[in-house]
Design a protein that fits this description.
Strand content: 15-25%
Number of helices: 8
Helix content: 40-55%
Structural class: alpha/beta
Strand order of the largest sheet: 2-7-1-8-9
Order of helices and strands: EHEEEHEEHEHEHHEHH
CATH architecture of one domain: 3-Layer(aba) Sandwich
Number of strands: 9
CATH topology of one domain: Rossmann fold
CATH class of one domain: Alpha Beta
CATH superfamily of one domain: P-loop containing nucleotide triphosphate hydrolases
Bound molecules: guanosine-5'-monophosphate
Distance between the termini: 12 Å
């Protein structure tokens, strides 16, 4: 019997361009992981190379609003004029199966998850410097200049809420950042409050 059978919900946030997507990919390449990515729903248009159902579920505003009305989303928020939200059923199923579910969402949504699932672990990713963030947004080249400005403005407001997270991880180098997150996940599993009830059961086994 494992000490801890239920998976962990890991909520990652950080300013646009900080490298959350790249860190996530590095995390999924770590040995012996059972990570599962929570694919969000959005009304924004796909970027080049993005696939429906893999990067996001791309839907219309009408469809998104219908999902909200049906209470199908764990959380949702508007970010730079577009809706983003997390389908609920997938997360419940994967956690029950023992998978670690990784969510990559902005802060307003993360605060809603904190209310509904306080047992989740909240990690805020920061760039090594402000300039590094600007460089990344420009190099990525997927946003128009006014959108980059909007995203930088938004980043400033997101930083103000970083103190509400359990951990802050610096993305100085992708592998290092992913490694720190993996270490956090392992340590969180070992926390007494998560595993003590399983330990008690284990002691009763004959
Ligand atoms: P992007 O357009 O760059 O893919 O995402 C913009 C922002 O929306 C990012 O900060 C990303 O983490 C966030 N985001 C992505 N999916 C969700 C979601 O399901 N819910 C919320 N609240 N934010 C999300």
């Amino acid at each position: 019997m494992k000490l801890n059978e239920r998976g962990l919900l890991v909520v990652m946030s950080g300013p646009s361009g900080v490298g959350k997507g790249t860190i996530r990919k590095a995390l999924f390449r770590m040995p012996d992981n059972n990570f599962c990515y929570s694919v969000s729903m959005t009304t924004r248009k796909p970027r080049e190379g993005e696939k429906n159902g893999v990067d996001y579920f791309f839907v219309s505003r009408e469809e998104f609003e219908q999902r909200i009305a049906n209470d199908e989303l764990l959380e949702y928020a508007e970010f730079v004029g577009e809706y983003y939200g997390t389908p609920k059923s997938f997360i419940d199923k994967k956690l029950a199966e023992g998978n670690e579910v990784i969510m990559e969402i902005e802060v307003q949504g993360a605060l809603q998850v904190r209310e509904k699932m306080p047992e989740a672990v909240f990690i805020f990713i920061v760039p090594p410097s402000r300039q590094a963030l600007i460089d990344r947004l420009q190099v990525r080249g997927t946003e128009r200049t006014p959108d980059i400005e909007k995203r930088l403005e938004k980043a400033k407001r997101e930083f103000d809420l970083a103190y509400k997270y359990d951990y802050i991880v610096v993305n100085d180098e992708v592998f290092n950042a992913a490694d720190r997150i993996y270490a956090i996940i392992r340590a969180e599993h070992a926390k007494t409050e998560r595993s003590i009830h399983m330990y008690n059961k284990l002691m009763e086994e004959r």
